[in-house]
């Protein structure tokens, strides 16, 4: 298939359109400005709705409305904007509305910097907003993969009626790579719960308020069952040279890609290093990581933050194995050579 | 025997949990009557955000979405843009619309979204038991302005119709009250016009209804009704603040006459 040259914003947008997303609302923020710009052109071409909202808060609530109306709907932003969307994401989760939120992670806290980072890991994997809920979080490491995973995100969102985060970063947002646009969803799932007017049926409501005693607890238990199913069924991870590795490098997204080259360097010098890359950050591949770690003697976690995924790695391997960490917070991006040097120290 | 008064089809049989003398019952019934009369119940989607107004999803016999506090105009925008043939309205209180949701209401109005907003202004936060609202009158005592609202501490009440009338995107803005039977009839006429304009695709309409909250005003119901028309209307004068469609229609007529 013919490939086209796109950056990560454009590829993610194409993945969404291929998945049948017909509603996008967004707000400018670097490094994902290309996303609303591209959608403002492409969405109307596909017969969908593009709105530049007055804020990230409003954008996520427009997505809430579009999703309630039965449409596949999305928004994109970067870290400070994603913080603003957390109220809406909590409401989406509570009302069990599907939606896709792309986060092109930049460095924080606060206004931080526009440089790439992975410091929103906790926010993506622990819920982010208020209440007992989870969001599926997908972490692409290339422009092709952000296309594929954004497409997949819509299927997962509909399957579980839950918001899905595509957790990328400023590098994936802005690099250009050749992408195969090989997907096209022809038939969308029927949404009998959607608010379309109550012709020939009883009225529906979409809500997260439950004032009657006990109802909210029951609702939360029902959602817990859903989250358990997601944990059982939807884990994705990828492995590179793990079979004989005695040093398992654990990294995700862009950082994993940098580690990939560092591992090749290590192999050339006879160091048996392998790469374990969680693709779903939640649900996290605990069991598979524990299995791989059992064969290795040491684990080396590399992240573009102060060490957030390391908590999940510890949950996976408990205290059975020594964990080393190298991180670059605040927009620092390590080079492969830098990581290779760290590998040699272990 | 002839039935002269019954529950509109657009209201459910659920008993409301509003306080005695609360205006929500009157206003929600009025909306329901209008929706029945226009025959649009089966294609209408309501949006109820946070405050006493949120409970309306139990009372409107039609599709209703809840929204986060203040965000109803954004949620309504999402629904209406996806389903332009449906009739979409929001039902919002003063704290919701004129404080936490000012960005959403201003920009939905500026975009000229073809939706209808019913804005219930009772000058107080009702559900949270009577704190100062953006529309609380100067001198009015609330639980967070116990000696009365002062401009020095609390600034001035927000006049929503006046403020939105400056935006080109708005089509129809009217302020009414529920302080007397003729006023309730006027309110119904305004709400009907707002929905009719949406059906005709004429753009953004908002009806601000001055309403009662005897519980938090700490007033007998009869006094509350008098307070709406006698006191609130001084700060919030009822009237049509914009009717672009009527203006356009009359100028078309004048052009024809020429």
3D structure, described in words:
The complex is a heterodimer of chains A (346) and B (258). Helices cover 41% and strands 21% of the residues of chain A. Chain A has 346 residues and is an alpha/beta fold. In chain A, the strands form 3 sheets. Chain A has a 7-stranded mixed β-sheet with strand order 3-2-4-5-7-6-13, sandwiched between helices. In chain A, helix 1 packs parallel to helix 2 and helix 9 packs across helix 12. The mean pLDDT of chain A is 97. Chain B has 10 helices and 9 strands. In chain B, helix 1 crosses helix 7 and helix 3 crosses helix 4. The termini of chain B are far apart. At the A-B interface, helix 3, helix 4 and strand 9 of A face strand 1, strand 2, helix 2 and helix 4 of B.
Topology:
The complex is a heterodimer of chains A (346) and B (258).
Chain A: E1 3-7, H1 8-18, E2 23-26, H2 34-45, E3 49-52, H3 56-68, E4 73-77, H4 79-94, E5 99-105, H5 121-125, E6 136-138, H6 143-160, E7 163-169, H7 170-174, E8 176-180, E9 205-206, H8 215-233, E10 237-240, E11 247-250, H9 253-268, E12 273-278, E13 280-282, H10 286-295, E14 298-303, H11 310-317, E15 322-327, H12 336-345
Parallel strand pairs in A: 2-3, 2-4, 4-5, 5-7, 6-7, 11-12, 11-14, 14-15
Antiparallel strand pairs in A: 1-8, 6-13, 10-12
Helix pairs in contact in A: 1-2, 1-6, 3-4, 9-12, 10-11
Chain B: H1 24-38, E1 44-48, E2 63-66, H2 72-82, E3 87-93, H3 94-100, H4 102-111, E4 116-121, E5 124-125, E6 131-132, H5 151-154, H6 160-164, E7 170-177, H7 181-199, E8 204-210, H8 214-217, H9 221-235, E9 239-243, H10 244-257
Parallel strand pairs in B: 1-2, 1-3, 3-4, 4-8, 7-8
Antiparallel strand pairs in B: 5-6, 7-9
Helix pairs in contact in B: 1-7, 3-4
Order of strands, main sheet of chain A, comes to 3-2-4-5-7-6-13
Number of domains of chain A: 2
Tell me the β content of chain A. Answer: 15-25%
Note the overall shape of chain A.
Answer: globular
* Low-confidence runs of chain A: none
**Could you give the order of the helices and strands of chain A?**
EHEHEHEHEHEHEHEEHEEHEEHEHEH
Question: Whole-number radius of gyration of chain A?
Answer: 20 Å
Largest interface: A-B, 40 and 33 residues
Q: How many distinct helices of chain B?
A: 10
CATH topology descriptor of chain B:
Rossmann fold
Count of individual domains of chain B: 1
**Topology order of chain B in helix (H) and strand (E) letters:** HEEHEHHEEEHHEHEHHEH
Q: What is the CA–CA distance across the termini of chain B?
A: 53 Å
